[in-house]
Amino acid sequence: MKFYSLTNNHNQASFKEAVIAGIAPDKGLYFPEKITPLAADFFEKIETCSNHEIAFRAIHQFVSADIPDSILKDILKNVLDFDFPVVEIQEDIATLELFHGPTMAFKDVGARFMANCLGYFSKNESNEVTVLVATSGDTGGAVANGFLGVKRVNVVILYPSGKVSDIQEKQLTTLGQNIIAMEVDGTFDDCQKMVKSAFLDAEITALKKLTSANSINVARWLPQLFYFLFAFKQAKSKGKEIVFSIPSGNFGNVCAGMVAQKMGMPVKHFVAATNVNDVVPKFMHSGAYNPVPSIATISNAMDVGDPSNFVRIRQLYGNDLVELKKNLSSFSFSDEETKDAMKEIYSKSEYVVDPHGAVGYLGLKKYQKKNPNTFGIFLETAHPVKFLATVEETLNISPKIPPQIQKVINREKESIKINSYEGLKTYLMGT
Ligand SMILES: Cc1ncc(COP(=O)(O)O)c(C=O)c1O
Ligand SMILES: N[C@@H](CCOP(=O)(O)O)C(=O)O
Q1: Where N6-(pyridoxal phosphate)lysine occurs along the chain (predicted)?
Q2: ipTM associated with this complex
Q3: Residue 159 lies in a domain
């Protein structure tokens, strides 16, 4: 399988090359040349398959030219060692809990999958690789955890100072070893731009082999399609058409779900729910894509003003807005609406949802109002405890701190403060 650049489709790479490079030399995101539907009987019998089997069938076409089947099976065993339960909280409304991994957000699967692939590809190499990653909160912790101690790999995480939760900050600044955290005086978009600039900086790339562990990297992005298949397996018996509502920021997760649909998974519709960072909802309405600086919200991991993956979503539908709208709706919600949704879910169902999941719930409710008789699944993308202050203040409860979080909560933060691209460049050139 080849992957081509969305900037210039003549720039092609194998899976291995795309993973090692992160983005194409022309700064485009890599995209698979073909998405082959899985056999119909795979979906008919999906409930008889283990998660490992499902993941293997799903990812095989993208990686098999570069990873032997036996290694791929081992990687998936390492990566998928926790549960992905669908929990019904109201009639025809369920949540897909994606927070049972080591850093309690949905990024764990992609981060670990990419770390395993890179570990395999660099097994016989002597050169070091530097993984650059921009985070608005959760990617950083997952990548730090997934890459900790991986030989010949150094990780540099850029995060917006004061704009991630206390627990998210602990997860990405306290591990040490091969993980460096850079605290940027700016927004997530500034961090993301700095990472993309470093890839194009010949002075840096002459000295360092760089890659990215954001969802721009196909090995971080594609495994996210597993979630939708795991959810479909659990919800199929409901006998209703399924709608997924995905709290969205960089739009990698919803895009991975749409890949699962292209592979033949029956889905009625996707909803990409955002906070007030509403570039995509506006685009879906007007057809004009106008990135703007992001605004800080209580669902901070979705504070993205120029979502990287929207270009992939448009590609999936041949850049045809009419076709796209048949499959995707996108709605935006304020912090007040988000808090009200957290309260509503808690009072109706005694279920504690985090602010991101609450945005997903709101998107689903809005869609189901006009499309009743569907089974709706909103993705709970992070454990509520990661947003402790907001949850405590909104619901007036003190959730128990799970062991994964207790491990980091009392550790000392270590970060390098920078206020411009030069700060990142100086660091990369000097180490
Ligand atoms: C908790 C949480 N929810 C939702 C999102 C948005 O996901 P995506 O960037 O794939 O749209 C993120 C960050 O990516 C996140 O950390
Ligand atoms: N919300 C993300 C932002 C980066 O998204 P990614 O999927 O492209 O890594 C975060 O939590 O950092």
Answers
A1: 107
A2: 0.99
A3: no
The boundaries of the domain holding residue 261 are: 83-105+221-399
Whether 52 and 76 have beta carbons less than 8 Å apart is answered as yes
> Would 304 be classed as within a structural domain?
yes
Closest ligand 2 atom to the C-alpha of 301?
A: 1
- Quote the CA–CA distance of 401 and 388 in Å, as a whole number: 9
Q: Look at residue 215 and tell me if it is in a domain.
A: no
Write down the residue that tokens 């099976």 correspond to: 73
Q: What token pair was written down for 233? A: 């397996």
Q: Read off the CATH number of the domain in which 317 is found.
A: 3.40.50.1100
pLDDT in tens, 408-425: 999 999 999 999 999 999
- Contact between 325 and 313 under an 8 Å Cβ cutoff? The reply is no
**Inside any domain, residue 37:** no
Could you give the number of structural domains in the chain?
A: 1
287-314 pLDDT per residue, tens:
999 999 999 999 999 999 999 999 999 9
Assess whether 107 carries a catalytic annotation. Answer: yes
Distance 133 CA to ligand 2 centre (A): 9
- Ligand closest to CA 98: 1
Given the residues 27, 34, 77, 107, the one annotated as active site = 107
Inter-residue contact 19 to 114 (CB < 8 Å): yes
Contact 377, 231 (CB under 8 A): yes
**Binding pocket residue ranges, ligand 2, CB within 6 Å:** 135-140, 214-215, 249-250, 252, 301, 308
In the chain, which stretches have pLDDT less than 50? none
Q: How far is the CA of 352 from the centre of ligand 1 (A)?
A: 18
